[in-house]
From TrEMBL:
<keyword id="KW-0143">Chaperone</keyword>
<dbReference type="InterPro" id="IPR058240">
    <property type="entry name" value="rSAM_sf"/>
</dbReference>
<keyword id="KW-0411">Iron-sulfur</keyword>
<dbReference type="InterPro" id="IPR034505">
    <property type="entry name" value="Coproporphyrinogen-III_oxidase"/>
</dbReference>
<dbReference type="GO" id="GO:0046872">
    <property type="term" value="F:metal ion binding"/>
</dbReference>
<dbReference type="GO" id="GO:0006779">
    <property type="term" value="P:porphyrin-containing compound biosynthetic process"/>
</dbReference>
<dbReference type="InterPro" id="IPR004559">
    <property type="entry name" value="HemW-like"/>
</dbReference>
<dbReference type="GO" id="GO:0051539">
    <property type="term" value="F:4 iron, 4 sulfur cluster binding"/>
</dbReference>
<keyword id="KW-0349">Heme</keyword>
<keyword id="KW-0479">Metal-binding</keyword>
<keyword id="KW-0004">4Fe-4S</keyword>
<dbReference type="GO" id="GO:0005737">
    <property type="term" value="C:cytoplasm"/>
</dbReference>
<keyword id="KW-0949">S-adenosyl-L-methionine</keyword>
<dbReference type="InterPro" id="IPR006638">
    <property type="entry name" value="Elp3/MiaA/NifB-like_rSAM"/>
</dbReference>
<protein>
    <recommendedName>
        <fullName>Heme chaperone HemW</fullName>
    </recommendedName>
</protein>
<comment type="function">
    <text>Probably acts as a heme chaperone, transferring heme to an unknown acceptor. Binds one molecule of heme per monomer, possibly covalently. Binds 1 [4Fe-4S] cluster. The cluster is coordinated with 3 cysteines and an exchangeable S-adenosyl-L-methionine.</text>
</comment>
<dbReference type="InterPro" id="IPR007197">
    <property type="entry name" value="rSAM"/>
</dbReference>
Length: 363
């Protein structure tokens, strides 16, 4: 069994108006103390019998850490686990933090995949979102990354933004897909409780549910037309560039999270770290709360598999097979799902309604 490591880096230069992920302001001392705490925790979980084949630095803005800090973390992982020589090592990055020098340093310490928080290729939409970069800066960051030798670059795209139209979405997709990128993660904007976007002014400018659905289906069509196959509800990739780390989540494979707000599915339990960087730094090792004593039972396994375009193998559902097959015909007829008798998978239209379709099928 292999293992994926997720390192939550909770620093942001500026909090985006729509974001409810755990993040705090960056200071040099806090980043240094955080890095030392991460190193302690990697040593705490040390197991040389475990082969780590994916490492993911998420956030926050992990690229705010210095290359030396990131290198020390990767070096500790290599010393505490059996780090696969072909491991996928990803770092999320804000375009403004990606200089040619930083990109060269990241390549030299072993980072081989970038996830760039672009969100839109229209400056007016970026301003509404509260992003600090422009479309031109994002474009340059991707070009610089390719020039530095990165051959596995992902960009984030957000849809159903305030005042967004099919034309403005099409512009972003066309401009983004002309860049040397191999993967796109695309998300429908949701107004999260307690964020600045959680207000009547923003809600009044968001597309209605029907328009958001049309934007999603148009996005799927445009991305697939340009060689980015949908392999998960919100993820698209050129052949062979699917995110190996994120696929662990959807396939109920083990992953270990380190850092405040990090989640894990490890050694038969799901657990989470408190959203508290000061507590994380102060503790000898991170304090976790077990959230599931027996994860990946039938319902969870089936639900996660149905998030993937490859779908659910009916060989894996045992006694539930007959019930699933009985429920399928109306979903197939309405264009929400497909089956070849051995597998069941959702269509793009089904992904739009995935929560209710999956609930109908497996609960």
């Amino acid at each position: 069994m292999t293992l994926g490591l997720y390192i939550h880096v909770p620093f942001c230069g500026k909090k985006c108006a729509y974001c409810d992920f755990y993040s705090v302001g960056w200071t040099r001392q806090r980043a240094e103390d955080y890095t030392e705490a991460v190193l302690r925790n990697i040593r705490h979980y040390s197991d040389k019998a475990q082969t780590v084949d994916t490492v993911y630095f998420g956030g926050g803005t992990p690229s705010l850490l210095t290359s030396a800090q990131l290198q020390s973390i990767i070096k500790e992982i290599n010393g505490s686990f059996a780090l696969d020589g072909a491991a996928e090592i990803t770092i999320e990055a804000n375009p403004c933090t990606l200089t040619p020098q930083k990109l060269s340093e990241l390549r030299s310490i072993g980072v081989n995949r970038l996830s760039v928080g672009v969100q839109s290729m229209r400056d007016e939409e970026l301003r509404v979102l509260g992003r600090v970069h422009t479309a031109e800066r994002a474009e340059q960051a991707v070009l610089d990354a390719a020039a530095a030798g990165f051959g596995n670059i992902s960009c984030d795209l957000m849809i159903a933004l305030p005042d967004q139209t099919a034309e403005s979405l099409r512009y972003s997709i066309e401009r983004m897909t002309t860049l040397p990128v191999q993967h796109i993660s695309a998300y429908i904007l949701k107004t999260e409780e307690g964020t600045p976007f959680d207000c009547e002014e923003i809600r009044g400018r968001l597309p209605d549910e029907e328009t958001a659905a049309e934007l999603y289906l148009e996005m799927v069509r445009l991305l697939e037309e340009r060689g980015f196959a949908q392999y998960e509800v919100s993820n698209f990739a050129k052949k062979g560039f699917e995110s190996r780390h994120n696929c662990r989540y959807w396939k109920c494979m083990d992953y270990l999270g380190i850092g405040p707000a990090a989640h894990s599915c490890y050694k038969g339990k799901r657990f989470a770290v408190e959203r508290d960087i000061d507590g994380f730094i102060a503790a000898p090792f991170q304090q976790v709360t077990v959230t599931d004593e027996a994860p990946c039972g039938f319902e969870e396994f089936a639900m996660l598999r149905l998030r993937l375009r490859e779908g659910l193998s009916l060989c894996d559902v045992g006694e539930h097979r007959a019930e699933i097959m009985k429920k399928l015909p109306p979903l197939v007829k309405e264009g929400y799902a497909q089956t070849d008798g051995e597998r069941v998978w959702l269509t793009a239209k089904g992904f739009l309604m995935s929560n209710s379709v999956i609930e109908y099928l497996i609960f």
